[in-house]
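Q: What structure does this chain adopt?
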Amino acid sequence: MQREVPGPGQESVWDYPRPPACVPSDRHVVIRLGDTLVADTRQAYRVLETSHPPTWYLPRDAVTDGLLTRSAARSTYCEWKGDATYWDVLGIEGGLWSYEHPTAGFTAITGYLTCYPSAFACFVDDERVRPQEGGFYGGWITDDVVGPFKGGPGTWGW
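A:
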């Protein structure tokens, strides 16, 4: 693994903290599924963790009314944020998730929602987000974040 050197206006995921940090952002964040607007906000939070692209969390009121239904999908547990609650949206079971009772360091994102950018069209300031490789982590890759990123084949042992 060779760390990428960030250029002007970029940040390296290797400079992100562990345990992760929860950082507010006023950047424009949009989630779409096909022609349907799922969410739109300038009041998101980024969760920044060493070796991972940010995961963006949007306030519940940013989600278009009537799209969310509590999912029957099984809850998962994050060592940093606690138990996840899953939400069905537009036929995607468990497509969004939130932390309704997060751990102390993440109370700012209580009830905020995120998704895998591989399942939705996600945008940060009009840039289409690329999903973090591997399907386990929910990182959002944009041009202003450099890696390498954990999650793909051969990266579990880093």
